[in-house]
Amino acid sequence: MDYSATHSGFRQQPAMRLRSLPADTPDPSPLFEDTSRVRAGAQPGGYSAQPAVPPAGAYPGQTILSDPMSNLAMAYGSSLASQGKEMVDKNLDRFIPISKLKYYFAVDTVYVGKKLGLLVFPYLHENWEVGYQQDTPVAPRFDVNAPDLYIPFMGFITYVLVAGLALGTQNRFSPELLGVQASSAFVWLIMEVLAVLLSLYLVTVNTDLTTVDLLAFSGYKYVGMIVGVIGGLLFGRLGYHLSLLWCCAAIVVFMIRTLRLKLLSEAAAEGRLVRGARNQLRMYLTMSIAAAQPLFMYWLTYHLVR
């Protein structure tokens, strides 16, 4: 039978030849997109994720700072901070003259050495007047007669440390006892200054002595107290009594020669006899302040040496 002829009225279709495509030619219309070979940082569909790069000269937060409301808030906050600082400084300076305290700590090594020698041996010193420059007292580092707070402050700390050493050599050391020793010395110092201020008020003395000056003069006795305790630790009770007696005599001479220029009148300070009840009261007050120093020195040190 000839299959080339028509069968039952149907004609056989000729066979179609398909053109072969290259093996590496991609499918022109893929059903799903292949994302297995997407590069790092690129997104499907041919888009790459580029990080947002700020323009040249920009910094983080520039957009926030460029906001007018943010600038106004920052300016308002700065003004409030400056006003608060001025208010705190003003109220603090009313009770504690911070700006004036810098004067009492303007010392150097030469001044400290001369002042310590003057406190221990004041008998050869002649000029006790404080130098002035344009109605302002010169800094302590330029005048050994000027009061300072460095030596009293360091003397107080050294006294507490030496007291702890003395208690330790007697097997009586404890933090509580050392705290009592420090607090008692500080309380006695404050009570002494308050008593002197009250006495000056009752006697109505017109003086340029300030509260800080009195605190400095009252704190100089710690130098003699330290010398006395160290003498007791090295040489026993006899060394304590001899060294403390020397320092007590020295501090009395120092206080009299220093305070007489502040409390007495000019004529009495120069050594001339001045009659009058008020001048006698000032002289008695000067002697009382000087005589109180050895009492405090002995009261705060006698129990540290045995």
Task: Note down, in words, how this protein is organized.
The structure is a single chain. Helices cover 58% and strands 1% of the residues. The protein has a two-stranded antiparallel sheet. The protein is globular, with a radius of gyration of 45 Å. A hairpin with a 3-residue loop joins strand 1 (42-43) and strand 2 (47-48). The protein has 306 residues and is mainly α. It has 10 helices and 2 strands.
Write the layout of secondary structure elements.
Layout: E1 42-43, E2 47-48, H1 62-65, H2 68-95, H3 98-104, H4 109-120, H5 150-169, H6 175-203, H7 211-219, H8 221-263, H9 266-269, H10 277-299
Antiparallel strand pairs: 1-2
Helix pairs in contact: 4-8, 5-6, 5-7, 5-8, 6-7, 6-10, 8-10
Spans with pLDDT under 50 lasting ≥5 residues?
Answer: 1-25, 38-49
Strand-residue proportion? under 5%
Q: How many angstroms separate the termini?
A: 147 Å
Category by helix and strand content: mainly alpha
Gyration radius, rounded: 45 Å
Widest sheet, order of strands: 1-2
Strand elements, count: 2
**Helix count from the secondary structure assignment:** 10
Largest sheet: 2 strands, antiparallel
Q: Approximately how much helix is present in the residues?
A: 55-70%
Large-scale geometry: globular
Element pattern in H and E: EEHHHHHHHHHH
